[in-house]
TrEMBL record:
Origin organism lineage: Eukaryota, Amoebozoa, Evosea, Eumycetozoa, Dictyostelia
Transmembrane segments: none
GO molecular function: acyltransferase activity, transferring groups other than amino-acyl groups
Protein name per the record: GCN5-related N-acetyltransferase Rv2170-like domain-containing protein
UniProt-listed Pfam families: FR47
GCN5-related N-acetyltransferase Rv2170-like domain ranges (all copies): 218-297
Amino acid sequence: MNSVKLQLFKHDISFNTLLEARGFKQIFRIENPLELGNVLSFTDSITEPNVLFLFDIISCDISIFTINLEILDKVFEGINFSIGFLTPYKDEIDYSNIKYKTPSFDSHFKHSETLTFKAVTLDIEEIILKHLKNYYNTLRNNFGIFDSFYLPIDNKEETIKKLNKNIDDNVNSLTIEDSEYVNNNWPYKSNESIHFIKWACSQEISASYRIKNEETGENDLVSWILMYPDASIGSLFSDPKYRGKGFARKVSSLIILKKLQSQPTQLPYLFIKIDNTPSQSLMRSLGFKTDTQVKWIVCSNNK
């Protein structure tokens, strides 16, 4: 089987239209990160795309979209992860447009010792695993199944009005000073995660809820939610002592408002484990609808 080489392309609004015309699904998951500017984009064909890879500059994760499983198979056959996913494109990347990158970014010009494929639709999981086993001695796809949610906007003004009713003066943005605490409470904490969390906490699109501690006089952080580099929202967390008080609804409402303001043409979206009933119920009550189910695949070479 002849392999297919990916091509690096620069974001052009007309390419989104072409992808939609070609039959790509979940266009909102493509347009969001492209508009945010935190991804490098790769396709098998600029004029007749069948496969799209989005390489996240900050988290170094890869998102995959395809309308042709056979060509996706051929694309994977042409990738040599042992030399680093980005190595073939080293001279083509416009580094001046990269505003923020984590330390692990440079490793993908040498090797891709650890790599995450995010929000993989279930129909392409087998193809990915088949090829990754040639490079990695550890493959994990047992993190559970997630529902992909998006927020349809029928009446933007009415949506904003409803969200504003959920917010009070204790809701604000996260700050860079919150990053260590947020990272320590993130269920997917790793040696590299603090870099992503620092980026997320420094963004305007985040939300936190603070309560004054009567003993210390400080405003304690008790609930938060943030935006990922792919422009999805997530990592909703509330201190167990303060759950059931509606703080998660407040921070979720604020981050959705900020998302609508900063990316007014894009639909807010997120991922929730299918067995996370409280978060599923909360987001449905805020108007979110499910789209498809996805998984995460993490591969590494453990010594």
